[in-house]
Amino acid sequence: MLYLASDGAGFPLKTHIAELLQKKGVPFTDLGTDSGGPCDYAPFGRKLAQTVAASGGRGILVCGTGVGISMAANRVKGARCVCCSEPATARLAREHNDANILAVGARIVGTELAADIVTAFLETAFSGEERHMRRIADIENAFPDGEGCRNEEIHSGATSVDERYLVTPEETKKILETCFSSLEPLVLAHFPVKEKKKLVILRLISGQFEAGKRYAEKEVNEILKFVYEDYVTIRRYLIEYGFMDRTRDCAEYWLKP
Length: 257
Hints:
Blueprint (H helix, E strand, L loop, with lengths): L1 E5 L4 H14 L3 E3 L11 H14 L2 E6 L3 H7 L7 E3 L3 H11 L3 E5 L5 H13 L6 H11 L28 H11 E4 L2 E3 L6 H12 L10 H9 L5 H10 L3 E3 L6 E3 L2
Helix pairs in contact: 1-5, 2-3, 4-5, 9-10
């Protein structure tokens, strides 16, 4: 599955990319923003990266330069985001680095060049050569500061987890295959008991909500009903595990950054 996201500065170019994908018959999910109004790029870069890392899909990000939003994306374990201003880099990033997210700058490239970059990114396969796989594994196992190694990033607002619940990309894939009957649309077959599995499930479900948007409780329920029959339980866990927050009177809900 392909995911799109942008900040306000990148919204017009993201709209153009969406139109290009529709013409090509490429299915995608837009994770926001939904207007050209001012907003921060980091929440959208992080949200898309978390969704890509959890689902095994790919993503396209757009901000003013492509730089800031790619930095935000690359803070998420499992995200390999490349910022491109020409097609050759996009092609080589896919072929050599198995890049799963493309970032472009709306103030740097025009619509025609952006279309060429996106096409190169989508149509190039990873070579799978041993030397490239070894180097990618080295990236995946490194801390941001270069010390030690870690697995999939835990949501910064989580209050009910510790290091015992870190999961590898391989475990994530297996959990998704086991617990979901469909990833597009998102349909949860059963909600697991183990904490590790809950984290993977909740992270992906949180991607159904738009960063920076406030939701009434009824709106949250309507979205979650399509994902899982016991939507009240999912809503409660999204709060308890730090993926969402709400007002004290439960009148409004929102994604936590």
